[in-house]
Amino acid sequence: MTATIEPQTGAIGRPIKRKEDARLLTGKTNWVDNIQLPGTLYVHYVRSSVAHARIVRVDTTAAKAADGVVAVYTGADFPEQAGSTCVWPVTDDIKMSHYPAICTDKVLYAGDVVAVVVATDKYLAADAGDLVDVDLEPLPAVVDMEEALKDGAPLVHEGFGTNHCYTATMPCGDYAAAKAKADVVVKRRFINQRLIPNTMEPRAVVAAPSVGMADEIAVWTSTQIPHVLRVVLALLTGVPENNIRVIAPDVGGGFGVKLQIYREEVLGLLLAKKLGRPVKWVETRSEHMVASHHGRDQIQDIEIAATSDGTILGVDVKLLADMGAYLQIITPGTPLLGMFMYSGIYKMEALNFECTGVYTNKTPTDAYRGAGRPEATFAIERIVDELAAELGMEPMELRKKNWIKHEEFPYTQIAGLTYDTGNYEAATARAMELFGYDELRAEQKARRESGDKVQLGLGISTFTEMCGLAPSRTLGALKYAAGGWEHCTIRALPTGKIELITGTSPHGQGHETAWSQIASDIIGVPVEDIEVVHGDTGRAPLGMDTYGSRSLAVGGQAIKVAGERLVEKAKLIAAHQLEVSPDDIEFKEGVYSVKGDPEKHKTLGEISWAAFAAHNVPDGVEPTLSGEATVDPQDFSYPHGTHLAAMEVDTETGKVTLRKYVAVDDCGVQVNPLIVEGQVHGGLAQGIAQALYEGALYDADGNLLTGSMGDYLLPSAADLPSFITDRTVTPSTTHPLGTKGIGEAGAIASTPAIINGIVDALRPLGVNDVFMPASPQNVWRAIQAAQGGAA
Amino acid sequence: MIPSTFDYVKAGSVDEAVAALAEAGDDAKVLGGGQSLLPVLRLRLNAPTVIVDVSGVDEMRTVADEGGSLLIGAAVTTYEVMHHDAIKASVPLLAQAAGLVADPAIRHRGTFGGSCAHADPAGDLPTVARALDAEFVIAGPGGRRTVGASGFFVDYFTTAVQPDEVLVAVRVPKLDGWGAHYEKFHRTAQAWAIVGVAAAVKVEGGTITGARVALTNMGPSPVRASSVESALVGGPATQEAISAAAQSAADGTSPTSDTHAQADFREHLARVLTARAVAKAAGI
User: Fold this and answer.
1) Taking the domain A21-28+485-631, which CATH number applies?
2) Is residue B230 situated within a structural domain?
3) Distances A129 to A83, A109, A134 between C-alpha atoms, Å
4) What's the pLDDT at B1?
5) Could you give the number of structural domains in chain B?
6) A-chain residues within 8 Å CB-CB of B272?
7) What is the 8-class DSSP label of residue A12?
8) B188, A652: Cβ pair inside 8 Å?
9) ipTM
């Protein structure tokens, strides 16, 4: 298998330093908070301090009279106005919530908005916010999913008569028949805890009327989805779509939490329109913890059936997925993005999947790096380890016995996906070599025998994932409202410089560099001469934005086709001017020359000027030189890899130390290995953080207990080892560049590797699971419980 | 978050600071390095109307050698404590613990006196002060007074310093000939201690002749583990004896339960970590 493009200047594959980094690292750029328009007003949101209450009264009299206050609004001022919406009604009978821009009757989670203050200064706005008198009649909160489904539970949405949101099923094969043949059945309940995605830059919105065209309202927002947001803002507010310009300037991280429609964006637009002045809101970190969506939060009951020789027969999965208080953009669909992934890389006869979404009085959940796939990968990789323990098999040997062999690709797995390519053997062999697998097993044995208080465990994760969301027809079949295409326009400007307009919207990924590398190879222009334009519906009007590792997997295809179209047109003009047939033109490294007579040639610069002047272009060829393409992907892509973690566990204190981590990923062709490396490192940190540090905790009244970084722990570089990484390269055959996607792999793979390692260390003590995050207390309690202690 | 409005006074001397506090009444707060006060202000947990900044008071920025003790100005930063030659030589326990406080940025801003005056039960440096029986020099309208560590730390975030007073310096006795170790147990490098143990022991001819052990976050204030100290003194400096003595480390403590640890786990940790801290202090 080889990549389908022949590099011309060889930019693809080079570890070029990112050209956007100088401005990103120094902060000398247009973060939304850096945008300062004349006459700006400042917005402050007054939020509910309780999780569930009836709004008795919101008195704004004192706030309105306060210094600098221009306006104070409550729900009564925006009746019926939605603040967000769900575009993925996953079943026909799903109960779709209305998410008010400002609450009118009830508040449904701590952080829900009850009023908004607009003032001339952000300090005065916050001061006035304290003067809004909110009278709430507290109601019992429903916090726990299983409690929420019981008869008589308090109702989040009274009109539904239940907290049940939906149940989606996907039976593949006959699980009951598979189980009937099994010698061994292992069942576990895993808790995939609620996480709070934290970006370096919190959210922020600036909205301003009449900056451009007379009726245009511009909305600068720290978002991943300017194009989707523009459409939805028009649908939700009634402001004509052609009057809305959404700009995602440089965005400081997303991870899914900015793949959203937020009430602060809707209200920003409406306030700017109503007041006729620019308005600005910048989220505080404390606000972010409650007001930006959360991730994960599933109870996973999973069962695996196998024969005594270790042949996996089937998997049965029943999920409870916490929606939180409202459905936002893809809240109900997020757990279902993992639906196809519960068989992992393994062959089996049956996969039975069921997911029930539940409303609770908590911050809504939605996509977070991996979105459904980390949860699925965690469950299958954990249960395979448990099966190995039950069978007395070495866990890697059990995997090898069941995974799809490299010669079996393309392989249609049990959930119906066709994995185009993969080589699990190669990635695993490389990972085991880098890890020193056998030596570490020997050390583990020695520590067990000596009764060392620090035990060693080896954690394995052999994962795959699906990237490149997605063929539009597939999305339609899944009831998702929008398509999965991507757009690119490449313009050769009269002076020979290149403008590459992409519909993807980077928020730290390095698209400007990587897209330049792809275009450089296709149109033969140096990387430095290509300017990538993104994230502004005014300058890059077509696009489906950035999430789900789709930008390269889908957007990359659009760049390739657009570039090829530009070259085709340039050939026609060159041939005309050189007075030969287009077939006689040879294109190499930006130069169009006559075959056999390279002295006769035109450069791209000469051709683009000629196309601009249009004095001498061939009949039937339009002036100006560009290529554009809107491409729908042929299929998902399936990156995979083998990750190994050596975990040391202090059995006296429960403290866990990650001693060594090896990640061998296969993301197909790497456009820029340095960017791939960065994605792997960042993903690992986030996945390891779920395993060891992060977890949103609520009390019984629905108050978030982990509302600051003192309680919600994020690791820093000091808490992580130097990762050992490598790649195998098995190019995708369904993606023209041979690429697969790498944005989420680290976060998906690492969580089960870490927990498998901890459990492996403690298995002789009788431990077969540890709650995440595997804090010292959780590990210590698991040991105590296994040994019959009181804990 | 955004603090409420306040007036700011930059004090040039201790007297100026005391005068500013007297003028402001009960509604003033002293600012050192700001690493505890500013988060409180930004979260609007407290809204003082006057902030008196003592970070520029020369007298509070110096370390004086008094022979048997060091007098460390309250505004000396955690970073300076960590790297100060005399502190490293004579009170290495304090220098070592300072190196475990938060992260480098915070250590450069935060102050020894500020940490003690803030009296967070999870603070590391108050525990060291308690273990060493430090003395606290406090200035107020009536002049200066000195309070011992046992009387200084009163309750959660509460010390003997009154609203009209300023903590000027901390007098830390030198412990020449003692071994010492601060054992901090936390989940991430910059996190607060779940439990911490400050231990100093004097070993002569294989016998422990002196022991000072104090615990972090095992109650509203730093706790002296007196029963551990008495069990250690006179006994052999062996792992077995130390482990046995450490079994009483949690006796008489009243640890809190929070998102990181329940009280019973803290009690367990106190025993394990005391054994480890004392053993390291004894060079085992």
Assistant:
1) 3.30.365.10
2) yes
3) 20, 19, 10
4) 61
5) 3
6) 652-653
7) T
8) no
9) 0.96
